[in-house]
Amino acid sequence: MSVQTEKSLLIDLLQNINDASIIQKVKNFVLHEIEPAPLSDNQKKELDRRITEHRENPKSGVDAFEFLDSLKSKYEL
């Protein structure tokens, strides 16, 4: 079974649970099990470059919601 199918099944199961404590236990388990992936040196350098660029020119970026709206329009979603 694919990962996407497994995720969908888990979401379906969670949607039918009405006990918040069970959902909190699942959330805590998942957060505990997921280890953050370490960044490579190249990824760190790229993030540093982007932060520096943003600090030098904070108006140069695109609003995230406007960008998502443009993608929705472009791909008729």
Automatic annotation (TrEMBL):
<dbReference type="Pfam" id="PF09720">
    <property type="entry name" value="Unstab_antitox"/>
</dbReference>
<dbReference type="InterPro" id="IPR013406">
    <property type="entry name" value="CHP02574_addiction_mod"/>
</dbReference>
<protein>
    <submittedName>
        <fullName>Addiction module protein</fullName>
    </submittedName>
</protein>
